[in-house]
Amino acid sequence: MGNSYVSSGWIDMHVHAFPAFEPYGDEIDEIGVKQGVATIVDAGSCGADRITELAESGRRAATRLLAFLNISHIGLQRIDELSDMEWINRARVLLAVSKHPEFIVGLKARISRSVVKESGIEPLHIAVRLSEETGLPLMVHIGSGPPDIREVLPLLRRRDIITHYLNGKSNNLFDRAGQPLEVLQEAALRGVHLDVGHGTASFSFAVAEAAKRSGIRPDTVSSDIYRGNRLNGPVFSLANVLNKFLALGYSLEETVGWVTERAADWLGRPELGEIRTGGEANLTLFRVKDQTVELVDSEGSRRECRQTIEAMGVFVDGRFIECEIRPEAGH
To answer: For the CA atoms of 182, 183, 185, 188, what is the dihedral angle to 10 degrees?
Structure first.
């Protein structure tokens, strides 16, 4: 059966939990409590047009839901949501932030070629100005260029998040020799937060191994999970993503820390990363099994893991919810 553990409730800093949007959507509890995750943070599924719907659905769910607001008011209604600058509306962003101050934790800008198209780097300049005006940090998605990654990172500041930092695309943060680019090293020194955001196409074992050799560790591990990559891989669950970090040689304590106290600290809600006598029960129960499994990254590369984390259940709002354990392809 393996050794059983209790931690503070797991936090997934990058999910897509607005099921109305395809392909990037899923039901809140399917990627939350049913997978042992007490708190999920939707990473910009909704802009100002539909953020209220997302907030209302979160109030009905067992999983605690927070969100980054997409700077494009249409959100992921389209997957090129920053290709038309008219979709970035300052007044709508400010109104949405003022209406949902406890729900919105930051702003989201997806800065890669398929999203911005001919808009280039300009949406990120606008995002930085909106961040300064609202006082909210940015989460910035990186991927294929243009814009070149060397244009993107210098604009990010302390507490801004770069997500997908271990992607294996040609526009990634490591050179051909596996060395971190200077802009990455500089960003890390000034406190830019490094988030995994595994997703369908944004996690490479080879890049993650290069990062580990260079001492460029994650600040948080997140899944970028939605219906397609939950059911068909390569994500499946947050636990499955954590197993990849065990396979990379990180300790269990460090790996679980990235989805508990480290995430809670960034959110400014340290109580979510603590277990305190007399405190509200916010717990994830999991076990670690000694078994050899094969794990697959976003590029089809495989690595063996000799220990696996399996979520068993969560305590949220005074009740225990047992996880739905499913066999995961790619093991």
So the answer is: 180
Which residues are paired to 304 by β-bridges? 294
Q: Is 178 helix (H, G, I), strand (E, B) or coil?
A: coil
pTM: 0.97
Helix (H, G, I), strand (E, B) or coil at 219: coil
Backbone angles phi and psi of 148, in degrees to 5? -65, 140
Token code pair at residue 107: 């702003």
CB proximity list for 268: less than 8 A, separation 6 or greater: none
**Euclidean distance between CA atoms 299 and 301, whole angstroms:** 6
Give the model's pLDDT for residue 324.
80
pLDDT at residue 330 above 80?
no
The pLDDT tens digits for 127-185 are 999 999 999 999 999 999 999 999 999 999 999 999 999 999 999 999 999 999 999 99
Classify burial at 164, counting beta carbons within 10 Å of its beta carbon; exposed 0-12, middle 13-18, buried 19 or more: buried
Looking at this protein, which amino acid is placed at residue 86? E
Give, as one character, the DSSP assignment of residue 148: P
Rounded to 5 degrees, what angle do the CA atoms 206, 148, 165 make? Answer: 35
Q: Quote the CA–CA distance of 305 and 289 in Å, as a whole number.
A: 11
| Cis, peptide link before residue 123, omega less than 30° from 0 | no
Instruction: Give the three-class secondary structure for 254.
Output: helix
The whole-angstrom separation of Cα 1 and Cα 219 is 30
Dump pLDDT digits (tens) for 41-67.
Answer: 999 999 999 999 999 999 999 999 999
Rounded to 5 degrees, φ, ψ at 179 are: -90, 140
CB-based contact 147:124 (threshold 8 Å): yes
Name 5's Cβ contacts closer than 8 Å, sequence gap at least 6. 256, 285, 286, 287, 288
